[in-house]
Amino acid sequence: TLSLKERLAELIPKEIENVKATRAAHGKKSFGPVVVDQLYGGMRGLPALIWDGSVLDADEGIRFRGKTIPECQELLPKAPGGSEPLPEGLFWLLVTGEIPTQAQVDALSKEWAARAALPEFVEEILDRCPPTLHPMSQFSLAVTALNHNSAFAKAYQDGIPKKDYWGPTFEDSMDLIAKLPNIAGRIYRNVFGTGKLPAIDATKDYSYNLATLLGFGENPAFVELMRLYITIHSDHEGGNVSAHTGKLVGSALSDPFLAYSAALNGLAGPLHGLANQEVLLWLKKMQSKIGEEPTDQEVKDYIWATLKGGQVVPGYGHAVLRKTDPRYTAQREFALKHLPEDKMFKLVGQIYNLVPDILLEAGKAKNPWPNVDAHSGVLLTHYGMDQMQFYTVLFGVSRAFGVAAQLIWDRALGAPLERPKSYSTAAIQKIFENK
Ligand code: FCX
């Protein structure tokens, strides 16, 4: 079948049985002890969620349905003449666990183009935002407002039975993803005054349309960058702030628009998605202070000054990863292919050679290596998108893929309301009084 929904309908009964069997075999087994420090320590390492689209290994990095980023680059269908994977294919993979055919991917491109238009009142909301309102806040507002036409919210009001929840959740998820380029393009053009938004081209792929709406569609290298960018930012297992927020809010049966706008508000934090903006700000400040081609010593001094000023080095460290993020490596390879002489790319490479030793010497960060955000802004800047306040919006377009795929499965598998247990410090002291 060319239809993702039809394929999903075939897979759901099998997966319900698979989960049943897994729970029957392992449901009462322990993952090991929970220690009190995990409650105070942001729940690091606490096994707490099911997330099927991807699993993150501390050393190896992300695998989407078992496939590494280089494997996805090799196996997923490409655009004619392109060499990066089409994010349509990644979405198919996240939802089904299967590598789609070119025809299946083309059908998704068409379907998303057909669903791309925004309700007029959402366009008006965006047009009324002051350009000083951060693009991420505008993004979240627009996605929240899409709830107006939610198929799930309506079906729930009409009394849809639980086993059918996934159908309207799928419809909303497809609408959500399809409408993001128009939202992103409108915000970009409104805030940075770069002219009127063109129409979606129903014969082209998602990334081409996104690039065109942003005003960069004429540049095939930028379109390829969007394909890579959306593929690698899409999903990073379930515990990160944006993914977990989407899943948590969805568990209250808030529809995918409400769930994803909540996720976006988490992505907008500087320790998470906003780090890509912070990296560029940091690099620009560095360049204005020590020049475009500084010596290693000048860069080292600047990094130390950042740390001594009580700030984090943006783009470095990770709550799970303990090696260089393969999403960083994929972007570095893209840069080596397309912009090896770019001064800021060279600076990013120079920083890569210096930061890890300094973070190790400073002695706090558990992971001194770069994450995805250390590299993305340099690529965008190279092609002329130098408005760093916008960068997290692109991350947000991509992360919808992973969150939506899991929301569909959560509703298909009847995932319950999330409600972990919390304790006060007084309660913890009482529990362990005599132990
Ligand atoms: N620069 C300076 N100090 C750092 C650091 C960095 N890049 N990374 C971690 N540390 C510090 C922490 O601030 C913490 O200090 P504290 O004890 O005084 O509070 C200490 O090292 C231990 O933190 P650690 O356990 O290594 O890291 P966490 O799991 O708590 O946090 C993040 C992980 C990603 C938040 C942290 O490494 C950081 O702040 N990095 C910079 C921001 C960033 O790049 N975020 C993007 C991450 C990601 F890829 C994404 O979500 O997009």
Summarize it.
It comes from Coprinopsis marcescibilis (Agaric fungus). The chain has helices spanning 4-26, 36-40, 69-75, 87-96, 102-114, 120-128, 135-145, 151-157, 166-192, 206-214, 220-233, 241-251, 256-267, 275-290, 296-308, 326-338, 343-362, 373-382, 391-412, 425-431, and strands at 54-57, 61-64. It has 435 residues and is mainly alpha-helical.
Describe this structure in words.
By secondary structure, the chain is an all-alpha fold. Among the domains are: 110-272 and 388-412, Citrate Synthase, domain 1; 275-382, Cytochrome p450-Terp, domain 2. The chain is 60% helix and 2% strand. Strands 1-2 form a two-stranded antiparallel sheet. Strand 1 and strand 2 form a beta hairpin. Helix 7 (135-145) runs antiparallel to helix 9. The N and C termini lie far apart (60 Å). The model has no long low-confidence stretch (mean pLDDT 98). The protein binds alpha-fluoro-carboxymethyldethia coenzyme a complex (FCX). Residues 240, 271-273, 275, 307, 312-319, 364-367, 371-373 line the site of alpha-fluoro-carboxymethyldethia coenzyme a complex (FCX). The site of alpha-fluoro-carboxymethyldethia coenzyme a complex has 21 residues, from loops.
